[in-house]
Specification:
369 residues; mainly alpha; Glycosyltransferase; two-stranded antiparallel sheet; hydrolase; hydrolase activity; Glycoside hydrolase family 88 protein; 6-hairpin_glycosidase_sf
Length: 369
Amino acid sequence: MINLKNITLGCVLLISNLSFSQKIKPEEVKATMRKVADWQIDHYRDAYTYDKPHHPLNWTNGALYVGMVKWAAMAENDKYYVWLKTIGELNDWKLNDRIYHADDHTVGQFYLELYKKYNDKKMLDPTKEQFDFIMFHPAKTSLNWRSPYHQSRWNWCDALFMSPPVWAKLYNITEERKYLDFMMDEFKATTDFLFDEKESLYYRDESYMGKLDNGAKIFWSRGNGWVFAGLANIMGELEPESSEYLYFKGIFEKMAAKLLKIQTPDGHWAMSLLAQKFYPTPETSGTSFNVYGLAWGINTGILDKETYGPAVEKAWNALVSYVNEEGMLGYVQPIGAAPGKAWPDKTEVYGAGAFLSAGSEVYKLYGGK
């Protein structure tokens, strides 16, 4: 006798699985990216985590610009390049106020990308001048958390997204090895300090070492997303045969393998990477950075498509489901330094930037030209 209940249940599960593993179409990726980019530009001066909008040169917006410049290269018109150029011009192409602080270097990534496109020295010179000063007056501070002037060096993992790619781009543009050498020394010092070899993940900073959250080591999703995306952005500026590239590739491969193991069944990564049972809420900024890194790794041949492709597909489909009809990306964890909360109707500019970075590589992965 045929059990209709079992057949019905099987059909439901089959339909559910088919919808979740929907084939990604490059034109749909592009359309969603456009919607997110346009919504974010329209709401650029809104308040998000705090009751005031972020300064245009703040790291939050810097992460947005990193993604937006990738989208600008894909768009059919110069609207997005014009928007980015206007921001640079209004701020005289200067970095934010703090000379040494990595957060205030983030905007240099989009400045130097625009320099590559327009070859206008005013887009390059202020960043180059400031980094020359840093090189010749290097911070001698400790990497220990809350030691005097500690954030003059990269002693929190977010910093590895903010500043090192700017040094790598400066090296690529000028072909002056001093920028690469400085970046390598500082990156290695941070990695030696914050990277957990057993878990293949980075502590956010020293204050989280030795602490447990519901019995698990505390590895913040977005913090590791910052690092993972930063590695891709650095390697994109280096020769694949170089020893420097191979150093970053080694870390990248370890992190990728770990991320594959700890992806949630829903496709995202939990805010506390090793404690997903206690953090079931989706979080889209860390997930977007991970998707960007994984898709970039496949596109460059570092990662095997058959192994990592399903994880990218599942995560991208999840991310798209959190974009509302107007183009706002939801479930972006507010500014913080540790696992926390996120909501479907809350966003942040860095979340949109991470999503646009992810989309730029997913688009290529699925055949976009």
